[in-house]
User: Which sequence fits this backbone?
């Protein structure tokens, strides 16, 4: 008998757990220096956010990232909470996809994806991370629709 780390019955749960882990990592990094997140958003995306708009966006993105996690975990959720969490997940993906494309076009030196706590270089990798996260989110939605996550 072969011993595997991930049994076949657990493998459907690994995909949404990975997506939730990435979202939690991004959210925690943003919260470590939350008081400077709006400054990073304002400086990196000057054409998009005014100073007050960056403060609203920083608060909004952290809230929707936290709201996106319950849908990805194998929990029995109320129908409206599951829909709210799913919409928050896709809202987060759209928000960061737009900012990643704008950052790529503008040639930003750093990405605001991890907030002010971690200064990571911009370029293609934030966009590819968001695309990978959207694939994981789609996969998770399919698994939940088929009843494999509850």
Assistant:
């Amino acid at each position: 008998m072969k011993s595997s780390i991930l049994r076949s019955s657990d493998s459907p749960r690994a995909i949404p757990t990975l997506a939730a882990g990435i979202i939690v990592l991004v959210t925690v990094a943003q919260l470590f220096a939350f008081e400077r997140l709006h400054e990073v958003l304002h400086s990196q995306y000057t054409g998009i956010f005014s100073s007050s708009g960056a403060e609203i966006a920083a608060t909004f993105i952290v809230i929707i990232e936290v709201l996106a996690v319950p849908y990805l975990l194998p929990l029995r959720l109320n129908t409206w909470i599951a829909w709210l969490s799913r919409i928050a997940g896709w809202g987060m993906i759209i928000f960061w996809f737009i900012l990643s494309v704008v950052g790529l076009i503008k040639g930003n030196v750093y990405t605001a994806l991890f907030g002010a706590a971690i200064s990571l270089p911009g370029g293609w990798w934030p966009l590819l991370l968001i695309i990978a996260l959207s694939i994981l989110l789609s996969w998770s939605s399919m698994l939940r629709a088929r009843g494999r996550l509850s």
